Amino acid sequence: MAESIAPADAPVSQGVMLKYGVGQLGAQIFRDTPAVLLPIFMITMLGIPAWLAGLAIMVPKLWVIIFDPLVGSFSDRIESRFGRSPMLALGAVASSLGFFALFTVSDFGSPWLAAAIVSLTFLLAQTGFSAFSVPYLALAGELSKDTHERTKILVYRMIFTMIGLIIGIGAAQPLTEWFGGGRIGWMAMGGVLGMICAFTMLTTALSLWSFRADRVAEEQVGLMAQLKRAWRNKPFVLINLTNFFQNIGSACSFSVVGLIFIYSIGNISLLWPFMLAMTAGSLLSQPVWLATSKRFGKLPMFVLACIAWCLVTLSWLALGKFGDMSWAMPFFGEIRVEVILVMVRAVLIGVFNSGFVLLAISLFTDTLSYGVKPGQAPQEGSLSGVWSACEKLAFAIGPLISGAVLSIFGFVSSTGGAIAQTDVAINGVILCYSAIPAAIVLLSLFCLRRYGKFMQEEPAAAA
User: Fold this and answer.
1) What is the CA radius of gyration of the chain?
2) By the 8 A CB rule, do 458 and 370 touch?
3) Whose CA is closest to 244, among 443, 9, 17, 43?
4) How far apart are the C-alpha atoms of 40 and 189, rounded to whole Å?
5) How far apart are CA 61 and CA 395, in angstroms?
6) Any residues with CB less than 8 A from the CB of 330 and at least 6 apart, and which?
7) Which residues, including other chains, have CB under 8 Å from residue 229's CB and lie 6 or more apart?
8) How far apart are CA 140 and CA 24, in angstroms?
9) Predicted confidence pLDDT, tens digits, the chain (463 residues)
10) Are 29 and 237 in contact, with CB atoms under 8 Å apart?
């Protein structure tokens, strides 16, 4: 049964925050598992060259650049009558089925045909996911009018984000091996994670069925008018552009994280404890980001988190410098220094990555009411559609960059699992996981130079 939701200017109950946040678990699995494992799946199981795999992943995400704003505009038009939940429910079912189909392996006979079929399947799955992800993001700005209350809501979202990361990245590959590996293993993994996606995303859709945003809109406008309003919303443009470049950097690293553990670290079994350590860092730091952003401001803490993340990411360039050196650890005995440093990096990445992701979305929700006058049509959905489209485009460009770099460095694809690679190819993997994403994230901060100035021009509208 759907819970009665308090007005948007009243404190949001923990139950509502929890029911909103749980949907992100499935959404994160859908977003991150293909980002990390689909390139590996295509390169090592279907024999698709790395550059072609990156292109096959990019094409479906080009489609959502058009489709996401359409979904956002449509959800704004029907929100006052039906709310966001019907679209959330439809998207939850469609994307979960698409996720399962994505890892259903067949003998396509040709890497080109395999790339085409995977790309088409991914396009259909992404279409279904748009119906969930766009109105879900819009809800984050509608559940409360208070800027710090919205950050608190997003903390719950971030908690489930990290659980989704554990399952979608940390557990997906071991789950594939647990089911026997090969074709059956990949298919079983897709089925299990697809069911988790469906359950969690439908929980949010059904439990918030009664919610309606607290507004009175006297006008209805089309997509083009909404996009023009989005362009005039300068704070939104700036934070969206910043997030776009940062997601390109993140996608570059996500697409090779499995290869890092296979080739650079040489122990794929470390991926699971790595994800656990990263999640621990993220979860333990959430109260700190919430408190410090309220005391010192969201924007300064956001910049701090980004710079710190870049420094940790650059430290991967030192991977392998300690050779076989080991330390004696209490209860664990002799452990290689490289393994210890990998775990330390995991915690720090969790702390700083969760900080800038949390605050980026919170800064975005602050722009949803910027410049909106009484009686104007809602723009939460349309702005969320643009934001979501840019995120998905970024996560298409990232693997394309990594695929091109891997091909340039001589990484060789295969059809029967991971094979030996040259030292030059492995250096290409490290580059895609360290210097390239760090440089992109650092450069993205230049987009934010005037964000604070614009927000101060209309404090009443943007609060």
Assistant:
1) 22
2) yes
3) 443
4) 14
5) 8
6) none
7) 221, 371, 379, 382
8) 11
9) 344 444 445 677 888 899 999 999 999 999 888 877 888 888 888 888 878 887 888 788 788 888 888 888 888 777 767 778 889 999 999 999 999 999 887 777 788 998 999 999 999 999 999 999 999 988 888 888 888 888 999 999 999 998 898 888 778 878 888 888 888 888 999 999 999 999 999 999 999 887 766 655 545 556 677 777 778 888 999 999 999 999 999 989 888 888 888 888 888 778 878 888 988 999 899 999 999 999 999 999 999 999 999 999 999 998 877 667 767 666 666 777 788 889 999 999 999 999 999 999 999 988 887 776 655 666 778 888 888 888 878 877 888 898 889 889 988 777 666 677 888 988 899 999 999 999 999 999 999 888 888 777 654 443 3
10) no
Look-up: residue for tokens 């800038």?
A: 356
Within 8 A by CB and 6+ apart from 72, the residues are 134, 135, 138, 226, 381, 382, 383, 384, 385, 386, 388
pTM of the full predicted structure?
Answer: 0.77
Q: For residues 410 and 428, is the Cβ–Cβ distance under 8 A?
A: yes
Category of 266 on φ-ψ map: left (φ > 0), alpha (ψ -120 to 50) or beta: left
Indicate the fold that domain 14-210+221-462 takes in CATH: Growth Hormone; Chain: A; (1.20.1250)
| 240 alpha carbon, distance to own chain's centre | 14
